[in-house]
Amino acid sequence: MHDETMSSGVYLPEMDVAPASATTEARRFQFNGNARDYFRIWIVNVALSLVTLGIYSAWATVRTRRYMYANTTLAGSPFEYLARPIPILKGRLLTVLIFGAYSLAGRVSVPLQLAMAVVVAGFLPWLIVKSMMFRARYSSWRGLRFYFSDDYLGAYKWYLGVYFLMGIPFAVMLLFTLAGTPSLTIIGVLILLAGYATIYPWIKGHQQEWMVENHHFGGKSFRFDTEIRRYHGIYARSAGVALAWFIPCVMMLGGIMSSVGNHTPSRAMPSPYILLGVYAIMAPAYLGVWTFVHTRMTNMLYNQAHLGPYGFRSSLEYWPMLGLYLSNVLAVVFTLGLAMPWARIRLARYRAERLEVLGDGDLNDFVRDAFAHGEIGAAATEMDSLLGIDIGL
Amino acid sequence: MVPAVYYNGRSSHATRVLAWRDEALLRWRVAEGADEWKVPLTEVEPSARVAGLAFMLRLPDGAHLQVEHDLLPADWFPRHHRIERVVDWLERRWMAALASVVVVVVSLLALFEFGLPWAADRIATHMPRAVETSMGRQSLKALQGSLLKPTTLSAERRVHLQDIFRRFASHLPNLPQVQLAFYDAPAIGANAFALPDGTVVFTDALAGAVPDDDAFIAVVAHELGHQAGHHMLRQVLRSSGVFIVASVLMGDVTSMGGVAAGVPAFLIDSHYSRTFEESADAFAFESLARQGIDPAAFVHAMQALERTHPELKGEKDLRYMSSHPLTEDRIARANAASQRFRATHKVTSSH
Fold it and tell me: I need a labelling partner for B12 at 20 to 30 A (CA). Which of A203, A208, A261, B217 fits?
């Protein structure tokens, strides 16, 4: 019945004959999900989660994530999300406990919260490793799972240790400021800015390198060309973008404030309308800068990565991304959250469209990893998504 | 026979095959080849049904068969994923989606109106007093110096007010340890507030604005209502709860969702604090009346407050933004309490 269509493009298993078709073409990722199906899946699962007091939420997460993964295909084969609900449920309970304790601690005593913040910060790199391991372990393509090495040392180096370097320019600035003269203070501030401008992109670049190089798939390890110069370029340009956004916004705000501010007594709390207005003006500016950094960094992440003979090309563009984010935020706010599924679907579609695999291979040359994969607790991934860390893979 | 894709689990080769069921066996073969495989159906673990997604049949040895969503015969795996089968049935129906919207709205309302306050209050009753003491000291330390400066009231006036405060408080049942503190707070203006450790803070401006001792006691009674109900601790627990629930609900969303969640969380918080204010008012009216003070004193205090804070007038449209009930509503309620007080007073005096 289907024989005619089936006979074309059959790959015989275990025979390493290169197919005759041209293999140099780039392979795009595809996203086939649609907002109608996803909306129903999402809303039913949210309702069930609420009715079961959150217990079902772990199953809900698995179903909704499976929808997003399985609708993303590469070379006709879907990705798979394989995580089990029970570990996710455990992770979620643990996270809520820790989170609750943390947010309460702040009201009871500041030293207690500081102590907890230090503990959480100390655990953060560990958390990142665990969460990446979990995510990789339960993502697969063509029956082969991804794998993330448990490089805790690297995580502590690039997600904790290097931030202490940021203290050096600060200490230098303090020294100059303490010297007293205004010109020295200005030099100190300049050194501080130059120091940050040098160190921060360097940190971000190496974080991406660490993230990518610890991922493995199909018997191959991801490699990364770490060209730190490019990161300096991104952040230099993002500073320009920030200026371009904030100068007109602050001017607009200043204009409004001076016209409104006269008949409000200064000692009273500002009216909520003014707060709302400030929010409405500053939020798009913030989004504008954030989107720029996010877009460029995501492109950089993929464009410098290699897996065996393959490379990647991510060509997200600033204005379409900003348009997507802005319209998503507006739609979600004005539908009181009901547009969330639609927002996620269109973002996933754009991102998939803009991502492709480059290289001469036919994507059939991946083999099962020798790594024995143990089960990894979901607590770390859940914590990660609750704390809102955008790791960006 | 159904078309399928076979992944052998050892490499990323995708092999197009035809699969069929042969009694208790699952068989598949390459369309025009000699290769054929079989495995008992009981050893196959299918993925759960989700609208539009291909089924992944997990085989022993890490191999997979991928069958398009609409092509998997229903009789192959009738007994798998029973719960998710029901969920899937719901997920395909627009009526179920509509009903879900209603369920979500109703259960969120119930959660924030009853569930979360109930749970937070349960926790509050089990909190040691030391927590409240520490919270109070914490807030006072944060306010002192910047906002609260040493009082400029005369010692005589302070002693007098402390005296009537103590006398009033000593007649109230179920009150934790309370104390009155005066501060000069030009940035806050005429105001009074309660701290969780039992401190009632009175600003010099308010002490100067209240027309008489009864009006002073009326304000004190309101603040003691907060103390008697442990409102500060309960408010903190509730808003932590709102924060946690919001984070869990928004769990899958990126940082932009967090920004959007801030607004509803703020509205829910002020809803809670408004109910606390109303209950503190009710406590004040009742305790004033019980000690023979006409609740009209509360009206006088509110009017004095309005005179010192003219900007509070005409904020009717901001009801949901403000943590306090509208002044007019409060005055109306105080007047009603005053009328009841006068009525009962007449009755008791005529006896």
Answer: A208
